[in-house]
């Protein structure tokens, strides 16, 4: 499985494209809002001869959903989220203009993810793990053979997701990290929603929020 990160919008959000040798591709948390950002994603898909087959959100804060409609419409794929994120997603149009996103176009989910689900594409499988705290229905996607987690805004290099947004809770987030992520092998790579990737072992040892 190949993991590609494209960083979009003023929040510097990491959009992930996952594909394997079958050329089937999953888009996770598309943050592309501006036309040139949408074209960058489209160009990557075309240049690598990929077929987008699934559209997933780890959670539905504005910076992670700005490109949902573009991806859904361009590649004719339904949006998939955890049901506890739908209220968060439906709130985005009410505050998007306050952040300068007057042209935000809403895309509602057609499918729902729950803990333990297996997301399949090509020859690849991702396990859905529920890890609330930053957002109520936040999920991460774990590929066990590749020792890879697409982690959204749960755990960052040297930091954790903020918990001062609606639906956030600090104690819940710490519990999620300790019971859902820190139980994974130390050499698992975590691809975060912002900033560089890290590993479970590094964060266990050095993350100041989790010592």
TrEMBL record:
Boundaries of every Metallo-beta-lactamase domain copy: 12-194
Keyword terms: Hydrolase, Metal-binding, Zinc
Pfam families reported in the protein's UniProt record: Lactamase_B
SMART domains named among the record's database cross-references: Lactamase_B
Hydrolase is among the record's keywords: yes
Cofactor: Zn(2+)
Keyword Cell wall biogenesis/degradation among UniProt keywords: no
Name the record gives this protein: MBL fold metallo-hydrolase
Native source species: Pontibacter locisalis
């Amino acid at each position: 499985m190949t993991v590609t990160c494209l960083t979009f919008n003023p929040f510097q959000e990491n959009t992930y494209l996952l594909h394997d040798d079958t050329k089937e591709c999953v888009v996770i948390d598309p943050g592309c809002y501006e036309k040139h950002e949408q074209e960058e994603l489209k160009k990557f898909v075309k240049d690598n001869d990929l077929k987008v087959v699934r559209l997933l959100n780890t959670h539905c804060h504005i910076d992670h959903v700005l490109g949902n409609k573009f991806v859904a419409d361009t590649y004719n794929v339904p949006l998939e989220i955890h049901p506890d994120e739908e209220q968060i997603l439906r709130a985005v149009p009410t505050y998007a203009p306050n952040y300068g996103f007057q042209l935000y176009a809403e895309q509602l989910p057609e499918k729902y993810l729950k803990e333990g689900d297996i997301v399949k594409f090509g020859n690849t499988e991702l396990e859905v793990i529920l890890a609330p705290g930053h957002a109520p229905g936040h999920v991460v996607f774990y590929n066990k053979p590749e020792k890879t987690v697409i982690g959204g805004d749960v755990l960052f290099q040297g930091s954790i997701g903020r918990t001062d947004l609606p639906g956030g809770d600090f104690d819940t987030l710490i519990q999620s990290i300790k019971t859902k992520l820190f139980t994974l092998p130390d050499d698992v790579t975590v691809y975060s929603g912002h900033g560089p990737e890290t590993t479970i072992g590094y964060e266990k040892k050095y993350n100041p929020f989790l010592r």
